[in-house]
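Query structure, 377 tokens:
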């Protein structure tokens, strides 16, 4: 290596080192986060699941309440690309389905009818639906020609397509977790900010309130609050009621994080400068103190979303959360409470798989954010 190339290499290293130390904290967090492979994978998975929930009406071939009485407990159908004669179907196809009663076990057995071939059509017209309750349309991502059916995840006890219902359930279950965490985040910042900034009697009262809430067993408390919801409430009101129930206990941990951080930084020089400048206490907390450790708050909030999702699933599973005709993963799992039913129709457990994937993806994302929150480590 020549002296000139050594000088260039040294200059490049100096430039990179300078850019590292001159970069803002958010830039350093972003750089470190994108080096965390599992966090990136979790971000991609959870972003995909939220997009599926947003566009579930378009992605699903049917509506969640549409019934097919001839296909009760139909197992998942197989998509094929070559028929018996070797003919190729670029978009895939499904055979006709015929159900017969097995007189030995009294179970309905489904078999492919190879004499009927139904090609899969994309961006096709099907059952009308209202996109997010606003725009009425009948365009679906895929479907089959009239006379055929397609059940990628099988059907339930009423002949409803489980693929469609799982897509709609993703919208409800994931939004409960997100909205519940946002409510808990706001409450935690308010109560934690007051306790950490003022201290004294304010801190004592808030800390005793937090300790009282934490002393209550979580599951029975959720059950009591959820059971208090009137049974005649409409679905939307029950949805927000369950969200508030889940957020009631979740803000305590956030409040303690905020309080601890404020106790560390409330005596800093920039806080004193803001007071001298005439800024109000609320302005100091909102514009100076909370933004100084916002990265930690975001990490803490992200790691609590799985708890919200699991809480909604558990409440709905035991029948005190969201109820039919609402469609969430917990509501869908109600049909899988019987061991005998699961043994005969294992595809009813598919919602549990989506819950596991969503929780793992968010946990991976939270781990990556937690490592990136302190970029100097």
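Result returned for the query:
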């Amino acid at each position: 290596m020549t002296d000139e190339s050594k000088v260039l290499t040294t200059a490049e290293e100096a430039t990179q080192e300078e850019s590292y130390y001159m970069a803002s904290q958010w830039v350093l967090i972003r750089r470190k986060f994108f080096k965390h492979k599992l966090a990136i994978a979790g971000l991609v998975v959870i972003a995909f699941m939220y997009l599926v929930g947003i566009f579930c009406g378009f992605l699903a071939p049917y509506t969640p309440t549409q019934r097919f009485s001839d296909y009760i407990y139909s197992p998942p159908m197989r998509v094929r690309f070559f028929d018996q004669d070797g003919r190729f179907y670029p978009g895939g196809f499904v055979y006709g389905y015929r159900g017969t009663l097995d007189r030995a076990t009294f179970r309905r057995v489904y078999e492919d009818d190879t004499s009927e071939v139904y090609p899969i059509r994309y961006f096709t017209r099907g059952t009308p639906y209202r996109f997010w309750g606003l725009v009425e349309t009948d365009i679906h991502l895929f479907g089959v020609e009239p006379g055929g059916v397609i059940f990628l995840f099988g059907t339930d006890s009423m002949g409803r397509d489980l693929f469609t219902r799982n897509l709609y359930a993703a919208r409800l279950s994931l939004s409960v977790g997100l909205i519940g965490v946002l409510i808990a985040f706001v409450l935690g910042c308010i109560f934690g900010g007051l306790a950490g900034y003022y201290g004294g009697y304010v801190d004592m009262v808030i800390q005793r309130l937090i300790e009282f809430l934490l002393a209550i067993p979580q599951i029975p408390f959720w059950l009591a609050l959820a059971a208090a919801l009137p049974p005649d409430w409409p679905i939307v009101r029950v949805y927000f009621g369950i969200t508030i129930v889940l957020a009631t206990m979740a803000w305590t941990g956030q409040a303690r994080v905020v309080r601890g951080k404020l106790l560390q930084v409330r005596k800093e020089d920039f806080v004193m400068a803001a007071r001298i400048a005439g800024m109000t206490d609320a302005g100091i907390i909102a514009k100076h103190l909370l933004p100084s450790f916002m990265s930690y708050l975001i990490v803490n909030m992200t790691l609590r979303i799985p708890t919200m999702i699991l809480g909604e699933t558990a409440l709905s599973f035991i029948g005190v959360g969201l109820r039919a005709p609402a469609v969430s993963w917990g509501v869908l799992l109600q049909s899988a409470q019987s061991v005998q039913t699961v043994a005969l129709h294992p595809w009813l457990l598919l919602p549990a798989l989506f819950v596991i994937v969503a929780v793992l993806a968010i946990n991976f994302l939270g781990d990556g954010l937690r490592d990136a929150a302190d970029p100097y480590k």
